[in-house]
Amino acid sequence: MRRTSMQLAAAMLAGGLTVAACGNGLKLGSAATTSQGRITTTTLTNQVANLNAAYKVIKRKGVNPQRPVAQAPQQVLSWLLTFKVYDKIADQHGITVTKTQVQRQLASLSTQATQQKLNTADYVAAAGAVPPDLVPQIGRYFVILSALETRLDGGKAPADQAGQQALQKQVAHQQCLAAKDLGIRVNPQYGALDYTTFQVVTVPSKLAAAASPSGSPSAKPRLTPPC
User: Which of 62, 64, 72, 112 is 20 to 30 A (C-alpha) from 19?
Assistant: First the structure.
């Protein structure tokens, strides 16, 4: 596995739902929309339930989720949008994904899971808030990310930290371009897409933000594409 943005992506793993959309042009029953289709509240509800069921299993094994359980809807929606963004990246860069490549990536995840005495589904749920049903999509995501990095660095993985950071910025730029092209809109019930982290985050009201003594411009999510 490559050691730049791929490493950061691996670190992402290590590290009332159905509300009608209104007032922002989203179709009824949409958790988020893109130019290539929508993610329904039903899909999100089912995947959050899938994740919560996995949490019950891993807790019985003495393992605690590493992500805040209360933020499961935002975390799952972030993954569902990430998969769409990387599918767009694959289209933009002519990246083809094979079943063999996906299986190879999943085998790598399985090795990491075994080291933690877990199966792959339990591992990605505990570490990254990934519903077990979405494990195949995680494999595809890693394949596309690895291929993108190869395109950007000519197949020569950076040898130093500065080179790795430069490549990470290039990857983030391509991710931003793909997300921008998709025209992603998130149902305010779940929050908004933060373009600094590419995660769905809850957005406090302006009144609450003004009342917060710790609020600062640098801490605010970026809700429009910077690319």
Answer: 64
Per-residue pLDDT of 151-173, as tens digits, reads 998 878 777 888 889 999 999 99
**Residue 12 CB neighbour total at 10 angstroms:** 20
Residue in the block written with tokens 């007032």: 23
CB neighbour class for 94 (10 Å; exposed up to 12, middle 13-18, buried from 19): exposed
| Residue 28, token pair as written in the block | 């009824």
How many structural domains comprise the chain?
A: 1
Neighbours of 116 (CB within 10 A): 13
- In a domain? residue 226: no
CB-CB contact of 69 with 55 (8 Å): yes
Helices (H), the chain: 5-14, 41-60, 72-93, 99-115, 120-128, 135-153, 161-182, 206-211
Q: Residue 133 sits in which domain range?
A: 5-219
Q: Decide if 90 contacts 142 (C-beta within 8 A).
A: no
pLDDT at 163: 85
3-class state of residue 190 by DSSP: coil
